[in-house]
Amino acid sequence: MKEITPFTSFTPYSRQSISDEDKACVLEALSNPLITQGEINESFEKALANYAGTKHALSFNSATSALYALYASLRALDLGDLESFFYSLPSTDSNYKTKSIITTPITFSATANMMLACGFKPIFADVTFDGNLDPLKCEEILEEKKARGEDDVIAIMSVDYAGNSVDAEAFKTLAKKYDIKWLSDSSHALGASFKGSKVGSLAYASIFSFHALKSITTAEGGALLTNDSKLYEIAKLIRSHGMVKKELYHCDQVNLGFNFRLSEINAALGLSQLQRLDSFIDTRNELSNIYDAAFKDSSYFYPLKVKKEDDTRSSRHLYPILLDPKYHCAKESIVRRLLELNVGTQVHYKPLYNFSFFKDYKPKNEHGLLRNAEDFYRATLSLPLHCNLDKEDIGKIASIVIDVFDEI
After folding, report:
1. 165: buried, middle or exposed (CB in 10 Å: 19+, 13-18, 0-12)?
2. pTM of this structure
3. Quick one: which of 49, 50, 97, 201 is 20 to 30 A from 186 by CA?
4. Domain 20-274: CATH architecture, name and number where available
């Protein structure tokens, strides 16, 4: 049997890239009189909005907080005012008719967790071959509900899996046809584009994550982007205790709210990182192309298909491979063997409805599962891809991966 040489040192599937300039910006922020609620955060928000091409960008201490604020604001708009939202949650008012949001099961749990926190019911629809929510399956659900006289669906929340935009045109058409909102959890996709437009500007409202492993990082953080000024103002209240500042020391609390703010220190890191975002995306695409070339003739698996038109670009947040069905049962052995060889991997994601917490939201079909989502989960495995790796590193990792499949 061929002896496989381990990778130089352990590399996880992803890792942040922090420069000396980033560190200098953080230290400078620490020297400012205000290290929260200052001008750096405002500059970061303006830069985000300018980059994505939206009217508003609102920063948060996590993408989870941003999701909560988005869903809460959406429900407040549905009810007519923010106060109604806080006093009509199912736990306090059983007369409120629960509304639903169609979403994907192939995502991190925060996407659906915050729906439930805001009183929405998640309805899971199946995915396409690239792991993204299937607009045709969403329409099937909407048509079935229409036939039954049900009008509880208020929105569709898609997820740009691995940094690849969903079919924005299809979801815009659905939203218009059924008079609902299209929301986008674009946590994977800052820096991506669809037919010439930046992800973040496509949907009614979009969410970005600045977690350590995303396109850029603020350590922890997130943002809500939208062109709807009313949604923005409601989310802004929710983000900061429901309080409105007035003249001098005067302020008023007009609603219940939370402290979901991003600090100046985190914003300084984000503002510095944002200047390198396009170079990060260039690097991720260059490294992904090396993987693509190395794996093009593999009989064991194939790389996730990514659209490569001139005006459509992936952020390449992840590099997933999809195993041939005959190797699904060997996936755990493959992961363990790669770990022994200093190659870290991850699986994105187990379908949410298979978690105990979401057992009551399993799809309403004979088997309580979605075929494509189940197949995708069994097949997918994310390989290391981050800006601390170079072309030679990717070549070595690719060789190790192929050798491990040969061995197993």
Report:
1. buried
2. 0.95
3. 97
4. 3-Layer(aba) Sandwich (3.40)
